[in-house]
Amino acid sequence: MIAKEKIIFVTNFFPSYRKSIWKKLVNNKKSDVIFCFDPVQNRGIQVEKHFFLESNKLNSFNEIKNFYFFRRVIWQSKIVRLCLSGSFNQAIFLGDMNILSTWIGLLICRLRRKKTILWTHGFYGNENYIKRQLRTLFYSMGNKYLIYEKRGKELMIKTGFDANKIFVIYNSLDYEVQKEYFENYQKNNIQKEFTFFKNSKLKTVLFLGRLTPVKKIDLLIKSLYRLNSKRINFNLLIVGEGSQKSSLKKISKEGLKKGWIYFYGKTYKESELSKLIYSSDLMVSPGNAGLNAVHALSYGTPVGTHNYFNKQMPEAAIIEDQQTGFFFNENDIDDLSLNIDLWFSKFDFNLTRAERRRIIDEKYNPEYQIKVIQKAIDEK
């Protein structure tokens, strides 16, 4: 009988959107995975504190503490001691070079000839010389790499990393639950439930995410004002909370009064989010698109975002231009307005919701990810 690989998985905390993939890792028959993270919630991302207790796998959890310096630099307790121990075969770390303890952990593992895997965005393509050199040095301390998208892999290869050691893992949310909701809505042909709009029959554009400056939601609001200036054709639904909510409401004053803009607020309930996303005709993330793009396409709702990939999140690559969404010129209100108009007049009919969702079933799900992780673990 072949002995199981013992893997330590060092991460910062436990966001609930990773629950499905972590569950599969905990129950993986080929490897024993010990998760090390700080159970305290951070940065507004929902955390499952009792995941291991509920799974009856408390021995798969090693609690650590994150110490923050200058808001971005992190030191994680116990990691150096853990890496000095001999009780593991391989280690998976977040590929975040702001976590100083990871540098030390990688160095110790290298000296002890323990294989390490970095789960990371990789290079963005917009790094200055110093950051690129630091990132190259940091990644070179690892042995294998889990990268979110093909573009990240290509940039790693261009920098000189071995293509055979780089595995594209994509990303996922609560796949099984979302699939069940989607199939139910398709079967029962649910209708829009946007009673908060003056005219719920209009096409609805959605923004889903945190209301922060980097998301540039003001561009979307201004674009919709232009499109609705002569005749109101679109509703705008904004789902989320954040520091910009007050200022966004101020520039939305006229649309709020006329009943075609609505701020829904924040919700983590998939029963609510599923209906909001499925009932929307288009999700636009004007600053960048991340997991909100995966979330939208999980319900067949197309996604629009900007085309400057050096400033994008990896998940933006899920979009197939003019098929499952569109790209517009960054910060260009005219081009965003044009693309929204073109989407509904020309491209919205190319694929059904089920066809737009197909990429989720193929790659953006925990089952696919667990196969990639196991492949990386097995790679010598």
What does this structure look like?
It is a single chain. This protein has helices at residues 19-26, 51-54, 79-84, 100-111, 129-140, 150-158, 175-188, 217-227, 245-251, 253-258, 270-279, 291-297, 333-347, 353-362, 366-378, and strands spanning 5-10, 31-37, 61-63, 66-69, 73-76, 90-94, 115-120, 144-147, 166-168, 203-208, 234-239, 261-265, 282-285, 303-306, 325-328. It has 380 residues and is α/β, with parallel strands linked by helices. Helix 1 (19-26) packs across helix 15 (366-378). It contains 15 helices and 15 strands. Helix content is 38%, strand content 19%. A seven-stranded parallel β-sheet has the order 3-2-1-6-7-8-9, with helices on both faces. A six-stranded parallel β-sheet has the order 12-11-10-13-14-15, with helices on both faces. The protein starts with a strand and ends with a helix. The protein has two domains: 5-172 and 365-378, Rossmann fold (3-Layer(aba) Sandwich), CATH 3.40.50; 175-362, Glycogen Phosphorylase B (Rossmann fold), CATH 3.40.50.2000.
